[in-house]
Specification:
Blueprint: H1 2-15, E1 20-24, H2 26-33, E2 47-56, H3 61-66, E3 68-74, E4 81-88, E5 91-99, H4 106-122, H5 126-136, E6 141-150, E7 153-162, E8 180-186, E9 194-201, E10 211-221
Antiparallel strand pairs: 1-6, 2-3, 2-10, 3-4, 4-5, 6-7, 7-8, 8-9, 9-10
Helix pairs in contact: 4-5
Length: about 220
């Protein structure tokens, strides 16, 4: 009876959007974010489709340029390579080719997009920005376990949030990007591992985000 009550309480808490957190050391943080083999179970005739939405107060024109879909596909070339393509209506642009055996390259697209967008919007060296982000990837952090709805079904998720410029001596010169938070939500039940990747510079005092880039797993195409 007690076990049933406890199980019911956990279910209610998760459904309410509450999360349970645990500490990760730097190596565990990196391994969760850059997990190996995340494409191994994806059918090679299928396509993973992600939806990217961008808003940018400093450069509003980039929102339309960078909002669209990202498709991850496998070509029939026996080379086990993952091909990324950015799609806006009928316009398609190749984004790169990556070894599928390493894992899902969307994590690299996410971080590199945030680095590029920050350098383009707020100025500063992209090398400096990239190095701060790289350092954040191997720092101890908290992982939150929660729940999300995917295709009408509840799935267990893990979320990690990184703040690469929280202690940066130059943060006051970053035009709001000093508050940048990189949030990655993953799940065993999501094809390709990544459910949602969000880069957001939200002022500590509140208000509208200076910048927000959200990449969300949308669907799996091409399977029976």
């Amino acid at each position: 009876m007690i076990k049933a009550l406890l199980a019911g309480l956990v279910s209610v808490l998760l459904s309410a959007g509450l999360a349970f957190s645990a500490s990760l050391d730097g190596e565990e943080t990196y391994d969760l974010l850059f997990r190996d083999g995340t494409l191994d179970s994806v059918d090679r005739d299928a396509a993973l489709i992600y939806r990217r939405t961008v808003s940018n107060q400093l450069k509003p024109e980039t929102a339309e340029r960078d909002t669209g879909q990202i498709a991850l596909t496998f070509r029939d070339d026996a080379s086990e390579m993952a091909h990324l393509e950015f799609r806006q209506d009928e316009k398609h642009r190749a984004m790169g080719v990556f070894p599928a055996s390493v894992g899902n390259p969307m994590i690299m697209v996410f971080y590199e997009s945030a680095v590029r967008d920050m350098a383009e919007s707020a100025g500063g060296s992209p090398f400096y920005i990239r190095n701060r982000v790289k350092d954040a990837l191997i720092q101890p952090t908290e992982v939150e376990t929660g729940e999300a709805i995917l295709d009408g079904e509840a799935v267990t998720t893990q979320t990690v949030r990184l703040r690469p410029f929280e202690e940066d001596p130059n943060r006051d010169r970053m035009q709001g990007f000093g508050d940048l938070v990189l949030s990655v939500t993953v799940s065993e039940d999501v094809p390709g591992w990544y459910l949602k990747l969000v880069a957001e510079a939200l002022p500590e005092a509140g208000g509208e985000a200076v910048y927000r880039s959200e990449m969300v797993f949308d669907r799996l195409e091409g399977t029976q």
